[in-house]
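tool=predict chain=A
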Amino acid sequence: MSFSQNDVVVETEPTTPPTPNDTTVLLGKYELRELLGVGASAKVYHATRVTDGKSVAVKAVSKRNVLANGLAENLEREISVTRRLRHHPNIINLLEVLATKTKIYLIMEFAAGGELFQKVADGGRMTEDVARKYFRQLISAVKHCHSAGVYHRDLKLDNLLLDDDGDLQVSDFGLSAVKNQIRPDGLLHTVCGTPAYVAPEILAKKGYNGATVDVWSCGVVLFALTVGFLPFNDYNITVLYRKIYRGQFRCPKWISSELKKLLSRLLDVNPQTRITVDEIMQDPWFNAGGYRFNRVLVEQQEPEWEKSQIKTKMLNAFDLISFSSGLDMSGLFVNSGDPNKVERFVLRQKVERIIEKVEEVAKGTKIRVRRNEKCEGARLEGQDGNLIALVLVYRLTDELVVVEVKSIGKMNCNPNLMSCLMKF
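tool=predict ok
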């Protein structure tokens, strides 16, 4: 079974692990090459698309490790948020999601330039002109995130990548927050982030504004780019946090007075007086040499990913992921947590033929099948006319559909119907 781009594949995974001297084709679509990095629950590979040789990055996530480490919500959020932020030139694009019984694969744009962290580690501090270029791109991405109601919360050199042209790409939205996570007091409360980049108000554990903590992290990044080391650093984590909480950092003599002023406003320990993204874009240092902000359109209406997926006739990878329960991909087909049992199948079949099969199974039984007007589903009714089940069909691609069979109340779906659908 093959899917077009932006679809989910659920199949058996490759049996041969990739090695430096070997390659593995992932689900017939991507040829895995060298290993780029290893995390607690994921590995990232460089891969090439079989159809055209295009380079991509494949983030292979172990479902077992994700669930064991309590990171399921982070991964689900990363997928959803990246969809919301797609198409910004300085935010890494998630191309599609693939899945096997034990792993989820996030197929992302390949950042050939590597991490911005490595660029600083190898070359030391940058000139202010070079740092300004990256900082402008970072602020453009952050503004886009905030306009879409997303707060990254883990901005750092390691999560800033470079593409083929040397332009910045913000990645890793696993710790991000969205507006519906804000509590009634108007603040976020989850303590998260990387120690050297974390804002003092997060350490205070009294709630914080997602936008202001991102601005603080941007200040840490800008300091590191122009100075060559982090403004707050210590082997003792307690001492490190004390320095952050007090805002104890020192600007070297070689940086310009305009940059010092900007850094002091970015790394202001008081979030109420800290510079905002809009104010950054009016700053003299930021605009030195002339700068025109590249505005990226942000949808003002409610994003699709927050709406009910049931109303959508065309489904993609992100919609299917939303059907899963706890990242057990069997949730794409069986959602045992619902009070009304739901079965889902991905089929390569015409809608008309699926409804005909439902009618064939119902013949000779006490079940009556009523098609809806557009032939995109059917109602299964008992002798008394009460609704027993719903069969809904959603188009995934030109060839594939998702069939959802909902039992109503305590009535279970006809097992013959289930087995027939699965044999398509």
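The chain is about 30% helix and 20% strand. The chain has three domains: 10-109, 114-280, 333-422.
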